[in-house]
Amino acid sequence: MTPLVEIRDLHVDFPGPSGRVPAVRGVSIVMAREKLGIVGESGSGKSVTGRALMRLLPPQARVAAQALRFDGIDVAAASARDMQKLRGARIGLILQDPKFSLNPVMTAGQQIAEAWAAHRKGSAKEARDAAFELLEQVLIRDPRRVYDAYPHQLSGGMGQRVMIAMMLAPQPDLLIADEPTSALDATVQAEILRLIDRLVSDRGMGLMLISHDLPLVSRFCDRVAVMYAGHVLEELPASELHNAQHAYTRGLLDCMPRLDRAVARLPVLARDPGWLA
Using one digit for the tens of pLDDT, what is the confidence trace for 117-159? Predict the structure, then answer.
């Protein structure tokens, strides 16, 4: 059976003041229509890996891989026209903060309708009706008011729901969610994650959830890949994350405050150069 995503030995680097700077070094990830969490510190290469799959890296980035495939399609060799058919239509990307990702001069409804029309090729009325339906699917109580609202008139949670509706409009096979709840408070964060979980399950999509939040990923995903400095150090079932064996994963878990026991001082993660070997 063809995997939904196949990444083998991915390398990505960028130009720096003293030469090329590696951002991803030999990452290999294979996933089906499942919920895969990718965790690690800022700068570990999580977002770069997701964007490499969509070919959304800047021109100065240098990308090399033994395999970079989506549903059997060689992404590295695909033409620009073929990539336009994949992005949005088959691979959706939810970005971190809707304040900076939504168009400030278009209403929320216009942006959802535009995303639907770009891939579904219907009339303006059909696009508008689809936008209302999508707003209802992401549990917005007053879709007509939100349809006519501009991004600055929406709360963070509402803006994130609008972005999810935009990404779901073309009915993609894979959803890449890059820190989709980091700008939200805990209550809204839980609502958004429940919404994504329900929509992914109902539509039979794959989900790549990029996050810093290990407890969240352990509850929400099927599998977890732990990244450090451009490498995948450990991959394990999400339910077994608390039993992780690698020293880096153990260090991340130990650095988090806990409510079940008093700790005088949180430990500092000790890094081993051997992790990059």
Answer: 988 878 899 999 999 999 988 888 899 999 999 999 998 888 8
Would residue 118 count as lying in a domain? Answer: no
For 259, the token pair is: 């409510």
Residue 253 lies in a domain: yes
Q: What is the pLDDT of residues 247-272, one digit of tens each?
A: 999 989 888 877 777 777 878 888 88
Instruction: Find the CATH number of the domain harbouring 32.
Output: 3.40.50.300
Cβ–Cβ contacts within 10 Å for residue 77, how many? 9
62: exposed, middle or buried (Cβ count in 10 Å: 0-12, 13-18, 19+)? middle
- Left, alpha or beta for 139 (phi > 0: left; psi -120 to 50: alpha)? left
Q: What's the total number of domains in the chain?
A: 1
DSSP, collapsed to helix, strand or coil, labels residue 101 as helix
CA dist 161 and 195 (Å) reads 9
Q: What is the pLDDT of residue 183?
A: 66
> Which single residue is written with the structure tokens 């972005």?
163
Q: What is the pTM of this model?
A: 0.89
97: how many CB neighbours lie within 10 A of its CB? 16
Return the CA Rg of the chain: 20
pLDDT given for residue 215 in this prediction:
86
- Within 8 A by CB and 6+ apart from 61, the residues are 12, 13, 14, 23
How many Cα atoms within 13 Å fall on the side-chain side of residue 220? 27
What value does the mean pLDDT of the chain take?
A: 90
Domain of residue 73, residue span: 1-90+219-277
**Within-domain flag for 193:** no
